[in-house]
Amino acid sequence: MPAESSHRRASGLRRTVATTPAPGGRRRSRIESALGRNPAGLLLSAPYALFVAAVFIYPIGLGVWISFHDFFFTAPGVDVPQPFVGLANYAEVLSNPEIRASFVHVAVFLVINVPLTLVLSLLLATALNNVIHWRGFLRVSYYVPYVTASVAMVTVWMFMFNSGGIVNQILGPLAPDPAWLVNRTWAMPSIALYVTWKQLGFFILLFLAALQNVPKELHEAAAMDGASRWQAYRAVTLPAVRPATTLVVLLAIITGANLFTEPYLLTGGGGPNGASTTPVFLLYQQGIQQGNPDIASAIGVLLVIGVLIITYVSRKLTERD
Amino acid sequence: MKRSIIILIAALATASMLAACGGGGGSSPQASDKQAAKGPITIWYSNNPDEVKWGKQVVATWNADHPDEKVTGQEIPAGRTSEEVIGAAITAGNTPDLIYNTAAAAVPQFQKQGGLVDLSTFPDGAKYIESRTGDAASQYASAEGDYYQLPWKSNPVMVFYNKAIMRKAGIDPENPPMATYEEFLATARAIVKSKAAKYAIYPSPSSEFYQSWFDFYPLYAAESGGKQLVEDGASTFTDKAGTSVAELWRTIYAEKLAGNEPYTGDAFADGTTGMALAGPWAIASYGKMDWGVAPVPTSAGMKPEETYTFADSKNVGMYSSSKNQGTAWEFLKFSTSPKQDGALLETTGQMPLRADLTKAYPDYFAKHPAYSMFAEQANRTVEVPNVANSVEVWQTFRDAWTGAVIFGKGDIAGALNDAAASIDKLVSQK
Amino acid sequence: MSNMQPTPRRRRILSMTLLMLGALVFLFPFYYMIIGALQAKRDPSLSGAIPWPSNLTLSNFLDINDAINLGRSLLNSGIFTGVVVVCTILFGVMAGYALATLHFRGRGLLFAVVLLLQAVPFQLLMVPLYVLLVRGFGLGDTYVGMILPFAINSVAVLIFRQFFLQVPKEMFDAARIDGAGEFRILWSIAVPLVRPAILTAALVTFIGPWNEFLWPFLITKKQSMQPLAVAVANFTQTGAAFHANAMGSILAGSAVLAVPAVVLFIVFQRHFTETHSATGVKG
Q1: I need a labelling partner for C238 at 20 to 30 A (CA). Which of A37, B49, B196, C222 fits?
Q2: Is the overall model pTM greater than 0.80, yes or no?
Q3: Cα Rg for chain C, rounded, in angstroms?
């Protein structure tokens, strides 16, 4: 029987210092109480833990500290006042209409991208699971966008979607004017379409793996009970891939909220009057281009908090039904 | 789980405290000691092939005579991100002694970071700069009148036109009428209507902060008779000059005389557009095209000798991480001497920011009459204002521009006024 | 095969047709990129999607090789990505195994941190990291500096952990009762078992550094050290001025960047998908 379900369920973590008797009923030594039953685990995970501490904890800590001060990066040895300003940066971020707009853009993106990704990846994974001929070719085709760099793909995409490009030529009079990526209404949906296409392969992979793990017996039982294909799908397959569904939704939300590369490359500068900016894009602009790392850090912290809230909510939702 | 969260928060808090304490510290040697120090130095220059050629030559020439003060040159990718690279290098303390690719718009920020050396503190600093560049030097000084950059070279923006396309459109290729806005629009419409080219002119419509330097700013400099975007702490562009420039461009975009999407490559070199706003650096990419050059248009038409434009200058900064500032200053003067400025002109075709260029290098301009137009124009250029938050200022302007002018949303006066209000606020911050 | 009812022939044909159509749509931009890279003159019209022999040339590749040394950049990409993959597998398997099967103090904390990391955007960390690595450790313009922030991929750690969670505990407990030390268990039992997951993790880890363009750009100045993704990004952004067919050269560079990743994927996809069942998320 499976030991633990989805590894995203933090509530499934065991407490680190247990007082249950060790196997064989030995009394716990003091080392074991202090370091846990298998102290070798500390050694094994040490390199990774050190890496995480150096590469992430320190910069995040610095970022959080910066967000509470009036701060900018200076040359070494230059002393400038860096007064503590409490929540002033956060207030400025929340009251800035352009930054608020970027959060709205990300919301638009998520609303388009997450359901689309979920439905398409599940459908395609199911179909790919059942296909017999051409399986290799089909699977590779759906993964190719995921494996290719955005840096490589955006030029093609922009070429295809500009006003004289192939997509508009096919659409003829239906083509929007201004063209997709410079159009206020269509810029963010165009980016959402691009990112969905590009990431789908990864999510198809996750679902494929989950589908292949559904025990045959369940399907056979449903078939024997006379269930139709759709009923069998709903009653057997969907619940069985629930953990994968949760994971897909979570990862799609997190990558969507942190969207940077695609707006940066596809609409360099953030689109017409900032029509396709995202919080991370503005973080980059403020922090690195304009030399305001304090505002940038405030955006970053708010974003992380927002993402954590959304993922918490979405987990509760997907795990209840 | 709860314990984990508490421990995690404690760790983050500790890390942030440590991080805060980590910065700064250490006493730096006296400025005057550094200024006297001599020794090997490093310089960076852009990776434009012609500039690399010049750079290698000037380094080799200096090294031959100064074996104890060797200069090492390195090219850096010059792109829209080169300012970001320099800013990060300042923070890390690994900037070279001199960077021959410092954009004027970034200097206020670098100065704020403490990354630049005040050249005016050298005994002959201000004198050298002002005698080489003349009156225009004042545009490159800080608010207090100090020089944190040495104005090095400019690429005055003028209107290039493709003579073949003009011919096809039925316009006189030697003297196309484009001195007034009316004439300019008529020429533009003729080009597009006759299908000689898909567009009449095609500045980049994307939203990076510096794009306005190649559509709005040159025309505004001309129309306003040499005003900067911000003067004396207040935005200037809400005046009649700024508004008429904005309205001209709005007409151009509305009639589809210019494209509103980013173009990959060079639209003028590809023949997609009949005219382009560029400086002499672009000549190398036009190959065999038969091109002509004219000053930018103004609403009522001005004599070419009175028309201003944008300087598009690249300057030299001396960075505070430099230990051998004595050598750096001597090398800086050497590389901007009349001889080396002449070499720059010959090798790259870009205009050294030296007063009265045509008089200084008569032979060159006799041999290259096309460039003499740029040299003449170089006497009347406007640079970006040296103000706080300069990058954010230009980004604010660009955002208003793309909305109101390129995509015609809302009214121009309103957009310009809103931008001016935000910009005034940004400029007043320290 | 998970579906046991025989699917009617009509449904299968419909499903196959739709899949094929979808596959073609998915592949089209990639195909268009290759065609564009091979074209002598840029052609945005519909007919430009067909590889007319008269318009084909390899000159775009030569062109971009003049501007950026493709070979050298590929080498840098290879070094960067290769070291990251090796480090990830080495330390990731250890960490994943420890997180899944061993009980030690700090296990929960480490796991929570791994999850938290996913939510933090890298751009927030970039400048502090840069200052730390360059000012603190002097690693500017070095491969180590380039590799360090990416050294161990956290998603791979999660994949390994998930994998080990599905291995029956009895296998390890039996060995422990026999008196084997932890490291021996890891080496003789865990590692041979985890081979299928290694492939998955390697492929997932490969994509990150191979396609990364912001960080290496910041940390290196010398063009000779930059990986191909950075070189192509720079080339694209400077508008590829001075080049006859700018679009073609950019697409050529993009193709050189994309093709190795796709080829690797094709070669390993068989193992990737069929044995991925062992690493999948269980119900």
Answers
A1: B196
A2: yes
A3: 23
